[in-house]
Amino acid sequence: HDMNKELIIKSYTLKVGVGTSDICSDKFISDQTIIVNALDNIEARRYMDSRCVTNKKPLIESGTMGPKGHTFVVVPFKSESYSNQNDPIDKDVPYCNVKSFPANIEHCTIWAREKFESTFHMKPSLYNSIMAQANIWNRISNGETIDDLPKIYKFMKRKCTNWNECVNLAREKFDKYFSHKARDLLHKFPADMVDDKGIPYWKLPKRAPTPIEFDINNDLHYNFVLSCAKIFAIIYAIPVANEQINNVEKNKNIISGTKIEPWQPRNKVIITDPTVAKPTQSKHEGDISTDEWKFAQERTKDYKASPIPFEKDDDFQIDFIAAATNLRAQMYGLEAGDRYEIKRIAGRIVPAIGTTTSTVSGHIITELVKLCLSQLKELPLEIYRNFYINIALPFLIASEPLACTVQKIGKFDVNIWSSFEIKGNPNMTLEGFIQEVEKKYDIKPVLISEGVKSVYAPWMPKASSQLKR
């Protein structure tokens, strides 16, 4: 602003994504001339890319990661979009290390983040998805097989209705994660176990876990329970005053009054092979009776969960992950981690380097000037450049943006920038829409979808009845 007094800046402390579509609306995007991204995650980049493609707006996408950086130009009607690119797949840590045999603080942090995702995002989202299905309770009562039903049953029966129950549930999670889990492992693989050659099973890099006994006067123990309870309160839409959260004495009384079920041996399969990937599905853990379902239904009547996606910049989320990470490390005799180091690992944060940022910024300005000129006269696609750099090597590649792929639909040549417009009305049915498309474009739609959701296909059940909708 000091350089240009006419510059107007409006800042919003909001996450870029589907939830902020009221800010990044079609009107907002279409009112802009050029969009320049400086985002920190793939999901947000793809979202903005889709908004620019929909509204036919040029985009400059960029990013840095340590010494590496890139700029990517999206030119309407000419180039492919950012989403046409495939990012390299991250190399995963062996599942058995994360699940049962951590060797360092990184393994403990990945485990803590996975617990966060599973408990506070995946299960509440799964519950909402299954409960939104038509006639779900009748189908459950009739014994219909529904995927992941045991998972949501556990989620439903443990639904909290007040702050005390959130604290109780968090206290139970402490024993489950940091006491019972260790006992399960030692039951399966005793501390003095040796193989047929007399070699101890528990030898480095494998470390035998030690069950942690909860201590109400240990700050780390208390902080885990409190941070976990706060997130449960959000998921279950329970209003909690700051006075309740900060009342240490009362919270400790609630924790002390929690009934903890004693550990019982379980015949649970423990993966020890580092080449085995994480299972994508969980097994059914026994039948659920009609009475149990009735209890779950009554407890969650008219309830819609509030899943929490992981966000590295939310302190209450990092509170949970930092406490869980260090308790996990303590259980395995590992050195505790610093909160900021844990946040870096959980958020996959790579420290920024000023020279990388300045180099990428210079490339952005170069392409921005070209896009500004394109508003005055037509410029060919080969004028633009995408840049990929690694200043540690040093390494720089400049490449022309790839032209968008064109394919034939009926008599039209179409690409990602193409659109067919139909002027509808409140009374238009699906059948009327199809007829209008045929009439205007001489194309017969064989599949209609909204995003990834199928709306109509001739081979779908009850397809003919859907035409009148």
Automatic annotation (TrEMBL):
One protein family per Pfam: ThiF
Limits of the Ubiquitin-activating enzyme E1 C-terminal domain: 384-468
GO molecular function terms noted in the UniProt entry: ubiquitin activating enzyme activity
Pathway info: Protein modification; protein ubiquitination
Keywords: Ligase
InterPro entries, A to Z: ThiF/MoeB/HesA, ThiF_NAD_FAD-bd, Ub-activating_enz_E1_C, UBA_E1_SCCH, Ubi_acti_E1_SCCH, Ubiquitin-activating_enz
A cellular-component GO term for this protein: nucleus
UniProt-listed GO biological process terms: DNA damage response; ubiquitin-dependent protein catabolic process
Family named by the database record: Belongs to the ubiquitin-activating E1 family.
PANTHER family tied to this protein: UBIQUITIN-ACTIVATING ENZYME E1, UBIQUITIN-LIKE MODIFIER-ACTIVATING ENZYME 6
Name of the featured protein: Ubiquitin-activating enzyme E1 C-terminal domain-containing protein
Source species of the chain: Adineta steineri
